[in-house]
Amino acid sequence: MELFSEVYGCYYAVVSEILRSAPLTRAQAEELASGRGYGESVIQLIPKLLGGRDWPLLEERDGLFYSRLDRLPVLPVTHLERAWLKALLADPRLRLFLSDEQLSHLGESLSGVDPLYRQEDVVYFDRFLDGDDYADPDYRRRFQAILAALETGSVLQVTYLSQKGNTHTSEYKPMRLEYSPRDDKFRIYAVRLLDGAAQGCHVLNLGRIADLSPSEARYGGAFNVAEWRRRHRCAQPLLLRVSGERNGVERFMLEFSSYEKQSEYDEETGACTVRLWYQQDDEAEVLIRLLGFGPVVRVLGPEPFAALMRARVARQAALLDNGKS
Questions:
Q1: Higher pLDDT, 223 or 194
Q2: Who's near 261: CB < 8 A, 6+ residues apart?
Q3: Closest of 241, 280, 276 to residue 261, by C-alpha
Q4: Is pTM, for the whole model, over 0.85?
Q5: Which of 32, 182, 238, 318 could potentially form a cystine with 276 if both were Cys, beta carbons 3.0 to 4.6 Å apart?
Q6: 3-state SS class at 239
Q7: Could you give the CA distance from residue 293 to residue 309 in angstroms, rounded to a whole number?
Q8: Comparing C-alpha atoms, which of 209, 214, 188, 77 is closest to residue 136?
Q9: DSSP states of 65-78 as a string?
Q10: Peptide bond before 174: cis, by omega within 30 degrees of 0?
Q11: Contacts of 64 (CB under 8 A, 6+ apart)
Q12: Average pLDDT for residues 68-91, to the nearest whole number?
């Protein structure tokens, strides 16, 4: 089975976008090529496309370039893509983003296609077992209400169950939706409102939302979630040394790809020194993730975090000793 084709490459995508945007000026074509292509795309593509000889797809009239095509370019869906889509249909998380009509249409369109892989073929390790219940109709309803609120900028009245078992109802404006592969849970960053005024940003786990409904409250203020995350991150970054043993550096970078970090690679030793920033609320999760690497990752500082690591390792060792006795 052919996995890749040049028609799905970057240059084809850039040319397709230019044809779809025609008529346009040369400056607009160059802007599309530089924004969607590589650094040399303007030099490589634009002269061939606009010169009228190599790729005679456009014609110039009165300073504008018009497409010569009778129809807009459409890429066919390959067998590989259809097999991949059929595999995605079996993922319960996909139902959260699509309506019943969309799911029914996809199911009928892909009825004779074998999935690229099956859910049981994927083995998850080092992952919590209490993930969100994606098959719950109420969970799906709440999820799609949050998606709609993110698209429209509207406010929701949310009834939330805290970790201590307390329930409270407040008005929130969802700002960002996030998925944690380790927890297998979705969470949102939302601005809490009181009488229309912002009371700070809160992180809500979707699985703990007992109920929600549209609110008549409005909030048009600006709120930068990324800036809020920076202000609430750890005071000092973790200083880590990641060895190249068992492909440790690559595995570490993949595991912490969503975290802000700075790294320095030592070619002689194959090790990497990393400064890693994390949210204060995520300290326990970061600690557990680092422990999963074993001796591949060494915590050099700061000392309070290193002490937490030693205490966790000692507690686990004590549990093992008690289990043997």
A1: 194
A2: 237, 274, 275, 276, 277
A3: 276
A4: no
A5: 238
A6: strand
A7: 12
A8: 209
A9: EEE--SS---PPPP
A10: no
A11: 23, 24, 25
A12: 88
Selection from 131, 122, 144, 143 nearest residue 181 by Cα: 131
In eight-state DSSP terms, residue 54 is: S
* Mean pLDDT value across residues 153-158: 93
Bond from prior residue into 304 cis (ω within 30 degrees of 0)? no
Neighbours of 19 (CB within 10 A): 19
Cis geometry, peptide bond prior to residue 92 (ω within 30 degrees of 0): no
Give the Cβ contact number of residue 23 at 10 Å: 15
Helix (H) or strand (E) holding 231: helix 225-231
- Residue 173 host element (H or E): strand 167-180
What is the C-alpha to C-alpha distance for residues 165 and 224, in angstroms, rounded to an integer? 30
Please name which of 159, 172, 168, 235 lies closest in space to residue 203, comparing C-alpha atoms: 172
Q: Bridge-partner residues for 265, per DSSP?
A: 272
**Contact present, 41 and 34 (Cβ < 8 Å):** yes
Round to whole Å and give the CA distance between 272 and 264: 6
Phi, psi of 185, deg, nearest 5: -140, 155
The token duo for 212 is 């929600």
DSSP E strand stretches across 195-260: 197-205, 209-214, 238-242
Which residues are CB-neighbours of 213 under 8 A, at least 6 positions away?
A: 156, 157
Cα 297 versus chain centre, distance: 25
Angle ∠(105,108,114) on CA atoms, nearest 5: 125
d(CA 207, CA 28): 46
pLDDT at 40: 67
Q: Strand 261-266 to strand 185-194: parallel, antiparallel, or no bridges (unpaired)?
A: unpaired
